[in-house]
Amino acid sequence: MKKAAILLAVCTLAVCSFGSCEPKKESISNIEVNEQQNDSYENALKECFNAMYSIGGGDAFYSYMYPDSAVEAMKNEGKYDELINTFNDTQDKIIGDENGTLTFGSIDDSKEISDEQRDGIKKYFVELCKPYLPDVTAESFDIKEGYEVNFNYLHNGEKGGDDMALVVKLNDEGWKIITK
């Protein structure tokens, strides 16, 4: 009888280790990017903000954050999926721990970016891309139009706060968003 109990315990452990008895993590689906090529920077900003504060928003957020050439380089180096998974896992924990949800509210004010801001944004993109594109230069980035946007966001449907972002139409890639 004792041998039968031990054999049963060993078989149970073997089945659990091969069958993975630990709880499976739910797969995180990615939010699709729909507004990046749109004429409306307002819709792009809203989509990016909501992706930033949603489970599964990593791919959309990084599509708005990085120039396409940097995203492609990350994918070629095998680093992009890890970056997205880390973002999504972090958001999953943050959103799970938060008391409520954050969503985009409305735009309070916007103005076209200045030439000085335009030059600064190009330098920002150079520094952002250097780890993946070491030879990138400011001339690689053509800013077609850009805005400094002050907006508000909602927490559980009520005004949650104010924020600012720079929204630029870069090269032929659509809108890119630089958050504070």
What does this structure look like?
With 180 residues, the chain is α+β, with helices and mostly antiparallel strands. The chain is built from six helices and four strands, in the order H-H-H-H-H-E-H-E-E-E. It has helices spanning 2-19, 41-52, 58-65, 68-76, 80-97, 115-129; strands at residues 102-112, 143-155, 158-170, 174-179. A four-stranded antiparallel β-sheet has the order 1-2-3-4. Helix 2 (41-52) packs across helix 3 (58-65). The chain is globular.
* Number of separate strands: 4
Overall geometry comes to: globular
Q: Strand-residue fraction?
A: 15-25%
Radius of gyration from the CA trace? 22 Å
Low-confidence stretches: 1-28
Summarize the helix and strand pattern as letters.
HHHHHEHEEE
Largest sheet: 4 strands, antiparallel
- Strand pairing plus helix content: what structural class? alpha+beta
Tell me the helix content.
40-55%
The first-to-last residue Cα distance is 68 Å
Number of helices: 6
**Strand order in the sheet with the most strands:** 1-2-3-4
Mean of pLDDT: 84
